[in-house]
Write a sequence for this structure.
C-alpha cells in the first residue's frame, strides 16, 4: 500500500514519487497509486500552505508486526507477550537484553533492527504487503 503498483506489469514501482501512471508500460487504468505518491502529490499541490508543512514535519516509520519477522512465530510471540507485556512494548520499549532473555540474542537483535529501521524490506503496493528480506 505504501508504493504504487501496476496491475498490468504486476510490479511495485520504486521510482521517484509522485507517479500517476506506470513508467514501464504507461498504464493508467490498471495503475494503483500508493500512499507515498499520494502524499507527495498533495504536498506539491499545497507547497505554500500549512498542509505541506504538516506533511513535511512527519517522518514515516515502518512498524513491522512481530509476526512478519522471519523466525518469529505464534509461540514465540506468546512467550514475548507473557514476559514483556504488549506487542507495542516489545517493538518500541523493551531493552535488547530483556528481549534476549525470552527469545535469544539472534531474534532480539532482529527486533532491535526492526525498531531502528535497519531491516531490508521490499515495499508493498497494490494490495500486496511488503516483505522483510532474510537477515
Amino acid at each position: 500500500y505504501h508504493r504504487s503498483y501496476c496491475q498490468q506489469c504486476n510490479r511495485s514501482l520504486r521510482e521517484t514519487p509522485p507517479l500517476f501512471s506506470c513508467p514501464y508500460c504507461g498504464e493508467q487504468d490498471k495503475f494503483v497509486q500508493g500512499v507515498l505518491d499520494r502524499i507527495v502529490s498533495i504536498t506539491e499541490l499545497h507547497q505554500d500552505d500549512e498542509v505541506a508543512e504538516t506533511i513535511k514535519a512527519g517522518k514515516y516509520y515502518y512498524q513491522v508486526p512481530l509476526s512478519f519477522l522471519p523466525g518469529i512465530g505464534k509461540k514465540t510471540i506468546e512467550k514475548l507477550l507473557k514476559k514483556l507485556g504488549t506487542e507495542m512494548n516489545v517493538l518500541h520499549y523493551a531493552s535488547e537484553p530483556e528481549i534476549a532473555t525470552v527469545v535469544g540474542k539472534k531474534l532480539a537483535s532482529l527486533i532491535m533492527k526492526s525498531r531502528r529501521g535497519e531491516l531490508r524490506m521490499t515495499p508493498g503496493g497494490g494490495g500486496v504487503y511488503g516483505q522483510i528480506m532474510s537477515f
